[in-house]
Amino acid sequence: MDIVVVEHGGAWLKYTITEHEVVTANNRTVLFPVPHQPETEPTRRLLTLTTCHSPTRGESGNSHRWITYAELTGWAPRGGSSDADGGAVVVPDEIAALNPDANPN
């Protein structure tokens, strides 16, 4: 199970990767709040990551996009005081355990 951790405002948001797909570069339906379903109201908190992709190496223009979807599965308060006033960034143990080498605590 792969995860993505996003720092946003005063929290660490933990998303679990649910699926991926490769689409043509002009396919914008992956960007809807519910991917591929423009008329559907979201019922889950999803994250969509996109990057350029080329099925054949060396092709200029990157004709495709690699899309990765993830669902919010947890969060923790960021803790400490804000960076603006020189406070320390505190990473919750649950998040830090995912990558101990990157733990600033």
Can you characterise this structure?
- The protein has 105 residues and is mostly beta strands.
- 8% of the residues are buried.
- The two termini are 25 Å apart.
- The protein has one helix at 93-96; strands at 3-8, 11-24, 46-53, 64-77.
- It has a single domain (3-102), classed as Sortase, Chain: A, CATH 2.40.260.
- The model is unreliable at 80-89 (pLDDT under 50).
- The chain has one helix and four strands; from the N terminus they run ββββα.
- The protein is globular, with a radius of gyration of 17 Å.
Structural class: mainly beta
What is the averaged pLDDT score?
Answer: 79
Q: By CATH's scheme, which homologous superfamily applies?
A: Sortase
* Rg (CA only): 17 Å
The CATH topology: Sortase, Chain: A
Number of domains: 1
CATH architecture: Beta Barrel
Strands in their spatial order, largest beta sheet: 1-2-4-3
Q: State the end-to-end distance.
A: 25 Å
% residues in beta strands: 35-45%
> What coarse outline follows from CA principal-axis ratios?
globular
What's the CATH first level? Mainly Beta
Number of helices: 1
User: What is the makeup of the main sheet?
Assistant: 4 strands, antiparallel
The share of residues in helices is under 10%
The total of beta strands comes to 4
Helix-strand pattern: EEEEH
Q: What are the low-pLDDT stretches, counting only 5+ consecutive residues below 50?
A: 80-89
